[in-house]
Amino acid sequence: MPIRIQADLPAIEVLESENIFVMTHERAANQDIRPLRIALLNLMPTKIETETQLLRLLGNTPLQVDVELLHMASHVSRNTSSYHLNTFYKTFADVKDQKYDGLIITGAPVEKMPFEDVDYWEEMCAIMEWSKTNVYSVLYICWGAQAGLYYHYGIQKHMMAEKLSGIYNHTVLNPYHPLMRGFDDNYYAPHSRYTEVLLEDVQKHEDLIPLAVSDMAGLHIIAEKSGRKFFVTGHAEYDRDTLAKEYFRDVNKGINPKIPYNYFPDDDHTKTPPFTWRSNAHLLVANWLNYYVYQQTPFDLNQLEHL
């Protein structure tokens, strides 16, 4: 089933070339089906790339999804044109009176900074507070996950000795949890970050359930018992070449980064990385949409404030 987005969004051409079912607003208006309303708060500097990655995952399920793209009004994007933002994105002020079945909050390259020093932190807090009454389930990604754990539970992030970058093996801790249905006992997923959240800090909170962990990369997926919040510390949405782009960007900056772990064959950056996490990424988003959005959210979204 399709994702429903604006007819001239640049991602459409890429998604249609991959046979992802995309439906314009005009066509969807003629169907007697209530689509899931999903807001995507895109904090990444490469907004077009990130929106395409996440729309690809949202579009590969039997559900019709109406996607609203959001960006921060309190932050000036230097990597995305004002035309693109003004044409395809809304701000929190535009949607704060609306209600959504789901919300995705992406990562952001600000994890070295204290949360309160991020220029849009006040707006971020307002959105996370708003989501308690206006969104049924929130999927937090990477820095977004760390921000959510800090805001809702006071869980601190910790600097690592060096950047975590690569494809890491993970073990499913709770195979019977609906979010992990269909996952192999072990699976691969990308990480790209300088900070981490510690398992022992999460275990102090009875409302939080660690679902997957890596010996090398630490916690990967954390669920709130209610199903209203999920925290994913990695980047399941990454394309095959995203880590390569980050690596070569850092090389060109003179940072002298390490080769991403378990990524390039034989650690040879001239070789094409195998796409070993794609099926897990699709499964993760499909399970979230199915079990915690479609099957749980009320048909009348106005009932959210009473849940």
Can you walk me through this structure?
It is a single chain. By secondary structure, the chain is of the alpha/beta class. It has a single domain, classed as Class I glutamine amidotransferase (GATase) domain (Rossmann fold, 3-Layer(aba) Sandwich), CATH 3.40.50.880. Helices cover 30% and strands 25% of the residues. Helix 1 packs across helix 3. The longest helix is centred in the C-terminal third of the chain and has 17 residues. The relative contact order is 0.14.
Short description:
This protein is of the alpha/beta class. The chain contains ten helices and twelve strands.
Low-confidence stretches: 28-32
- CATH homologous superfamily - what is it? Class I glutamine amidotransferase (GATase) domain
Percentage of residues in DSSP E strands: 25-35%
Tally of individual helices: 10
Write the layout of secondary structure elements.
Elements: E1 3-5, H1 11-17, E2 22-24, H2 25-28, E3 36-41, H3 47-58, E4 65-70, H4 82-88, E5 89-90, H5 92-95, E6 100-105, H6 121-134, E7 135-141, H7 143-153, E8 158-172, E9 186-196, H8 199-202, E10 208-214, E11 218-224, E12 229-232, H9 242-252, H10 278-294
Parallel strand pairs: 1-2, 1-4, 3-4, 3-6, 4-5, 6-7, 7-12
Antiparallel strand pairs: 8-9, 8-10, 10-11, 11-12
Helix pairs in contact: 1-3
Q: What distinguishing features does this structure have?
A:
10 helices; alpha/beta; twelve-stranded mixed sheet; single chain; 307 residues
